[in-house]
Amino acid sequence: MKTKLTSKFLILLLSFLVLSSCDKFLEEDLRDEITPDAFFTNDKEAELAVNGVYRLYHNNNLYGQRGLDNYYTSGADIQAASRNVNNAIHNYLIQEGTADGNGTWIQLYRVINNTTEFISNIEGNENLSEDAINQRLGELLFLRALAYYHLTNLWGDVPFYTEQLPVPERSVLGRSPKAEIRSAMKADLARAFDLLPASYSGSNLGRASKWAAATLKAKYHLFDEEWALAKAECDIVIDQSPHRLLDNYADVFDQSDPSNQYNDEHIFVIDFEADLVGELSTTRTDDYNPRIRDEPAGRNNDTIVDGVSGSKVSIFQGLLRDRNEDMTGFGWSVPLPEFALRENWQEGDLRYDATIVSEYLGWKLSFPYFRKNWNLDQENSLRSNHPENYIVFRLADVYLMAAEAENELNGPGSAYAYVNRVRERAFEPDQPWAGMSQDQFREAMFDERRFELSAEGHRRMDLIRWGILLERVQSVQHRAWNNPGTNIQPYHVLLPIPQNQLELNPNLLESDPSNNGYR
Length: 519
What we know:
By secondary structure, this protein is mainly alpha-helical. It is 43% helix and 7% strand.
């Protein structure tokens, strides 16, 4: 969504409306002293407020860096750090006060605080046009449901409210059952679907559409094993939306042109843009970009290229710079050894080369990297100021969800059509599935989602909902500095309520004194 808010005035206004906040759960109440009549006197003010909620998702504790990725990609069977960092999370050394997600918790409740207040201010507001009310309500309902989706995924039962509450009441809320929260969010998403437009263009690309609402609702149903409802939502997106699977897998992730970052497969993204002050950009790309201090392999040895002797690193970096490229990232998140090996992918899987890169410009790299998530461009995608959008939902995921739900409902007979649409572009010649039992189809889906959706923020939650997280973590090969298989316990499928939040609100332990098993 190219709502750039480049003028100083708009940035200051937005900061006042949305972004100011203390770092304590449910203590934020920016407008308690201002009556609703003082807000949103026209459509533009409501739009600015909603833009500010999108901006909240840019925060490094959510999509801007590795906030959500910490818990959705680490500690699974696809990727990990390239060195001995982030080990508390990946190695399951999490406890109250240690890697307990406090920053992520705070930021998600900022989203909930602001969406809830803005919803109450927009509904029935006679100063706004009907079109503005409908669209802004739809967007806010979706953005709030996305926040509760993450909260219930990571912590299970959490404090829940959808009406404005005074600070004293919010600050003592206990935890509500996950099922209650998700039921309410499914209803909100159904309402959002009816309110939201089907498509956007120009500067509005990146806003939540009705198809984004249906996809998130399908996710909720899938995670709750409501197979018929999940499939129904997927079918709505597949049959009625303008989204389509691209012919070439690599094109799904090609954001090399900052002016053309969207494609027909993207259903919802967090929109980033490189800018002068870095407020709209992302640093997540740096996690996937190599750092030149690691590359190329054997970099400390001299070599001879075209008759010229020199250090490998200087020659390699010279080749990069000839292409206006460099390896200036953190090199943080790399494929695990098993996932990086071509022989562990099905023969003929074209997704491998689009996903994994172990050699570049003819030089062997010290680590494999995720090609689909890197951008070495030194003109448009600089260190700590990257424009690449975070792809939250795309159509291939919807097809795979539909296949899984159909198999659970009726067996693989009609499920093949969904998964084989995704596999059509993945293989040449085509290698469709057929002749499986329901169990075989289910287990094959474990790997199909792994190869199609790697490093996109789905894997760990997939393993959790399938009940195989511990098994996979304990069986996959990790690097020498990681040992999650030794430490992981059944209770690690959830995080502990953060220690800072418990100190602010002891009522968070009332329904579960064990704090999700961590006590």
